[in-house]
Here is the input.
Amino acid sequence: MHHQYPSILLESAVNELSRLPGVGKKTALRLALHLLKQDKQDVIRFAEAIRNFREEIRYCSCCYNISDTEICSICASAKRNHRVVCVVETIRDVMAIENTGQHQGIYHVLGGIISPMDGIGPDDLTVDRLEERVKRGDVDEVIFALSATIEGDTTNFYLFRKLSVYPVQITAIARGVSVGDELEYADEITLGRSIINRLPFEKTI
Here is the structure.
């Protein structure tokens, strides 16, 4: 069904908004009309915030977390144990684990997981940089905190093969009964407990 818009400007705004995940044309129209009712300065501030975020945001050169600076605040913190590195898929997983308050170390964001079906191989991820960190001897323990899916397990196993040649302890978060496939949806208590109760990776195979 083709909507007739009274204005090309409105139509163009709706088209852009409807490209967001989970936003259909109807919702996009509602959002656009909502923005139209707002104070002009508020809408300009909204647009600027998104533009600045896209143009200025950086990725930490150490762990690949989102950052405003060259090194993120977690990697720069003297309070963290820099010899324990928690490996996660995405930035959202860093946020989920940080919310538990149970990880005192630092992170390594892979940027995804190995998924041949989606054409994602190790070279598309930050695997080499993780190996470099371990190779340099900067790390005592690597914790695998990837999702409990076939792709997650494949990635864990691939990383284990790569890293087990170095003198580093490799552990995996405990698979709590209520830890879903996606780390970010696990409740904080369960996720926190699964970090505390982590196991040597060999025992999880």
